[in-house]
Write a structure and sequence with these properties.
4-stranded antiparallel beta sheet; alpha/beta; 14 strands
Length: 336
Amino acid sequence: AFLRNFLYNVPRMIKGLLVTVAELPLGAKGLGLGPIEFIADAIFVLKYRYRLGMLIRELEIRKVRESALSITKVPFTIADNEGLKILVPPRIERIQVATRDKLYFTCRMLADHLGSINRGEVVYIAYPLDARIPHVMIPVLDLVLTNNLKLLFVSFKYSAEEAKNIFFNLYSKLPTLTPKDTIDLLDKYFFLESLNPVGLDMIEITSHIKSLLGRGGAIGILGLHGIEGLEETQEPREYWAMLTNMLYYLKSQGLITIIQGSITSKTSYNKYASLADIVAKIEYRFEEGDATPYLYIWRRGFKPVVNRLEEYFKHPCLTDLHTLALEKLGRVEESE
């Protein structure tokens, strides 16, 4: 009783805030101080757990007087030059509709089959595990340049430098686009990042992506590459719940999200497809002894279409993208 009364009266005596710190014995859920915990206006418990051999720190919010708590457990890190950093996940109560702002394609065939994309929509690009080709990123370049958007590309498979080399090798194939043109294009429109899915919890990854979006400035498209690697390293229920919540948040911000990854199972493919407004899947068919890639495209509300992948990247389409790229770099006159 003495300790309880003492702690209750200290804030009045000092006319300030009293913060008490106590260490929980290993495995204990509480201090065992009984009524003393009832006089506290707020109780926070710093905890930790292990996941895949990695330490995950969590802050449990047990009590905050006169506050309607909706989140009771959040992860935190101890960051250099920052100290304790709370990672609060986005909270979306109602699902927002994609905005009516439409984004268009320059490539005629893509425009014919997709029409336009609304800000906030989700695109899922899928391909076989053993036949990954980078050509699926040509439409992304079209979307970026045609609408003057910036892309935050987060890979769970490659480093930022490896991703940049892949983009460089692909986009430098545009007719007469010089290496300097390609590098300038990437530097102007692409923000490349990589996150190790083994070393981070799903909620930490969500927080990192949210932070990256804030630092990039005028980001219009978020690309999540190698999504299968992220899925395989997370607890399934938490992963799908957090991914769905993140997609709803990105939709509310008017960001186009492009989920890109190998098909590891029919179940996973179906789940990603169910979250997407547009699905683009590469399928291989053997024709005259050769494996020919076909692109299956489905858009919500429309019938799916299937065409050879090369049909989308024939000379007129690539030439139009090349001209558009030079225009965005202010070099149209130089190329004429």
